[in-house]
Structure of DUF222 domain-containing protein:
Amino acid sequence: MFEYAGLMGEIRSVIDSMREVTVADTASGRQVFDGTKTLMELRNVVDHLLAVHAAALDRLGVAKQSGGTTRNLLIEMGAAPGVASRWLRIGAALASLQRLPAYAGDGVFSGEHVDAIVLGVAHIIRRATADLCDQERLEHERALISQAMSGATPKEIGQTARELGNQIADETGGLPASEDRGVNEFSVTETADGRVRVKGDLDIVVGEKLMTAIDSLSGARPEPDGSPDARTRGQQRADALEQILDAAGTADPRFVTPPKTHITLTVPADTPDAARLQWLGPVSQVTAKRLACDAGITEIIIDGQTVPLQMGHEKRLFPPHLRKAIIVRDRCCIKCGAPASWGHVHHMRHWIDGGPTDLDNGCLLCPSCHAEVHAHGWEIVMGLDRHPWLIPPVTVDPRRHPLPAYNRRTMHLDAAA
């Protein structure tokens, strides 16, 4: 314990000294290059030690004493979530690896490269139909280490691991990679700008189901004025995914036509404009209004310590009988003609702004048109004919000439008067 404490004291002194390091104006390119290499080696050693310490924290149950997890403890200490996960993953694997710990401890590899090797070895082991002996594991570990030393990127190391995994499966009579559900992976992560990145590696059966569903719902559809679909193929597929999620939300047989989404909205009592969604944090007023059109919403008022002060009741908007009536009247998305089964029921006068939930204030919009109406200045009004009319923004039509609903697109204002 004394030696450990003494070493930590020395490291603290080194940190204090390093804060004084700068790139002098008189430094040569060679000196800066050598200095960068030294700092990278130091960073690699520190990354390894952090993985070792993360594993020790987990083994000693430090976080459990307060009812938490080691990952959350590391995040509270200042680690990024992905980095905390990487340290724990590497730390847990070091005891089962024979060569990598020494290379990592010497600072030969970056934490990202070490993680790629750890993940690669684990992938190869999963692909084997029988347990690999120590010698076989060592051979695969050495293969990935050799590739890392040759200058391969973490991604290339992962590709090599998959190739080795395929060879093992072929040799032992295992499933081909395309049919092996045991190595399926799927992740949904939030990006720094509040968006969501989806990443997956799926077997051929799950992939076929996904591609079939996406393809069946991502066809081109005309714009309201009859011009070709302005969406890219990527946007079409993203809209198709939302339709799949909406369909899944309506699959519960206990409901006839339930809301498309259920949302938990937390509202700080002192700053009500800083409302947050349960999973993905703050949303703009535009998005909040769009979601409120066709969602189950539970409002939770919280104080400065995130303690609930008041629990709102879930507000289920547009009950089944009104949905059915609106579907009978509109038949499809009033903007693009997408099938009614895809549609959200939109409040022409926003519900958040006091708009009523009744037949004359609702209309059908598919998810992509719903988002466009809220975000890009489209207005929808109820005409004298008791049907919705769309008023384009000036960027689409400088005269803002009203358009009838899609199923009545052959009508003209003169005929409707």
